[in-house]
Amino acid sequence: MRNIILGLLVIPLLAIFQSTLLPYLNFHGKFNLDLVLVLVLSWNLAYPDSESLLWALLGGLMLDALSGAHMGINIISLTVASLIANLAGARVWSTHIILRISVGIAGTTIYYLVYFLLLTITGWRTDWANLPIENFVRSIIINVFVMILILPSVRWLAVKITQRTIDI
Amino acid sequence: MYRNKLQTNVILSATIIAIGILLLSLSYSQSLSKFKGAISRIMTPLQVNIYSLVEPLFINQPIAPEELVNLNATLTAETALLRSENIRLSEAVYERDMLAALLNYTKLDNVHTYISANVIGKDTSSFLQYVIIDIGTTGGVQRDMPVVTDAGLVGIINEATPRASKVLLVNSDQMAVNVRIQNSRADGVLFGQASKDLRLRYIALDATISAGDLVVTSGLGGSLPANIPVGAIASVRSRAYDVFQEAEVLPLANLDKIEIVMIITDFTATELNPLISTPVPDDL
Q1: C-alpha to C-alpha distance for A69 and A83, rounded to whole angstroms
Q2: Nearest CA-CA distance, residue A124 and chain B, Å
């Protein structure tokens, strides 16, 4: 339950930051950080519980509310991406740096692919032949970089909120 | 144990995806406006407060005194220039009105009613070109209203909730604007690109266009008023074997750094569908 309450407190704030502040801190449009995606992936990797998947629902809902695309697109994309992190996080070697990087790359790539696929299905004119691949790659790099930076703090927080006292 | 957990997580993910698909289909059929409005009512005040906190730190940093002196000199010179141009244009308007009255001509008047709004956010996806403004339907904003700055066209209102609206920017790949090149009077259609550039297409091959030419809305199609400046031609691509010419256009308004916009409230987009004739069945 603490997991969900934490999500309810943090995710709306991050979604608003992603909408208000990050567009001005993107190095002239070159590096666009997806803060909510990074946090949801990190959280699922650090705390691969079923409740953590609800962060994807909440994050997607917030992103959709602040986006011009149809409602539901971010929910689906984030859930698919976070399921990968969640499954990887349940492994014993989930703390390995290679796994973290792989989850960051796979999660971000799958998020963008599902996102663009859903945009196309819902009638957006998506030019698949001329997708801004460079922008994708740069976004993946910055997302993975930030994910690796914040993962120790996220893991520490996950341990803190899941700690239970044992009466002897 | 691990298998059970895996199963639970997959089932939960499938449920969330099902919720997403349900919301998507409801949103597609425009049935979620109240739900979106409710979220917007909660998010907008938070967004306004956070924007006002971060704006002085990251967005509008104070200008150095030397830069202000230079800016002042430039603006003073520009004001003098504009004053003389204003006098000349006032004369031209007077002359035009006189001639229009003589010809009993109903002129297209470019004087509009505006309401101004602050930009309080941008689309959470870096691949969609939207901005969020702090005025909604309660302030008189409606879908499809044109949005401009002092420099020129910014976009159109795509979605309006009671307290906030989303503006689809002119450089979005979902936008197509009927425009006219001011010098040559050639018409064309301006398309936004995924790369956020503007490309002008369908310009007649015989039209003489060159870099620097001003591009304004033509009013064709009735979705935007005529004569709103949009951009300037950056480069032209004209090949003998092409059917049309193409040009790259630089927007006049800095679409990456919009802070205040004006919404044209007295313009109603013309509904062209009734004018498009439908085929008559053979048996009638």
Answers
A1: 22
A2: 7
